[in-house]
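To: structure desk
From: M.T.
Subject: fold request, one chain
Message: Could you run this one when you get a chance? Sequence is below, nothing fancy, just the single chain.
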Amino acid sequence: MKESILTTGGRHVSEVRDINRSLAEKALNMRCQAYLSQVKANLLTATIYGINNSKKSLQRELDQKTRLERELKVANATKDRLLSILAHDLRSPFTNLIGIAEGLSKNLQPPNLESLGEHIGMVHSVALSGVELVDNLLTWIWGLSGQIKPQPVRFEANKLVQELFMLFESHAKNKSISLKCEMPAGSEIQADRHMTQTILRNLISNGIKYTANGEVLVKLEERNREWVFWVIDTGVGIAPEVLDRLFKNQLVESATGTAKEYGTGLGLFLAKELCESQSGKIWVTSKPGQGSQFAFSLPKVY
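Reply: Done. Structure tokens follow.
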């Protein structure tokens, strides 16, 4: 009996030992499986994270490539327009001057002397357009090469505008245009004088070009953190489809003026570049037959 009990007990102990071993193995296996599952989850998460980063990186590269292609397209269009200006428009003033000179040489006789003043006015207008075009081209090229950087100085805005009015006085008189300036005498601002002069010169020239028997008004408005120049004309205005394309980082071919003045579109393009280089903005409102209001802002510099 004693032996039977010992035998039975030993068997139970052996069975319990086997069960415990099996449970331990299962527990270990479950822990291993859980660990492996966690490792797989971590690897999967890392893989997904890496893929997402790669996708973001690829998207950034794609966006950059698209942007560069767009900029290259605009640059090529601008280059083509510049070549057109150099090939055609730069010759126009000299061709016109030759034609006027030939007309003068044939008609400069006593019966025709009354037209001398008109011809001289035409010579001045054409020469002014040619000089303006050359100045714009040089400024643009310097800007593209990075040689132009704003150099703020204090100057009288009223005096600057009066200097420009003297430049355009003859051309405006020939077209019966009055040039007006509405700003207090001694109005001092601080900005790059040459850049501001070039912007105003192009906007005033543009106003005279598309106006006849009217006026071009220049105003200065002081705001909290900026100065705003206005160049307002009573000319033919701008068509909506052209208005939408102005100041959009591209050259917009200029229409013929009211006195058949030619244009390149470079002046407004350059005005935008010079304004933005001083951290300013430029904009325009216009309706066909109701004139145009060009404005640009320059931040106050202390």
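Reply (cont.): Residues 1-81 form one domain. Let me know if you need anything else for the meeting.
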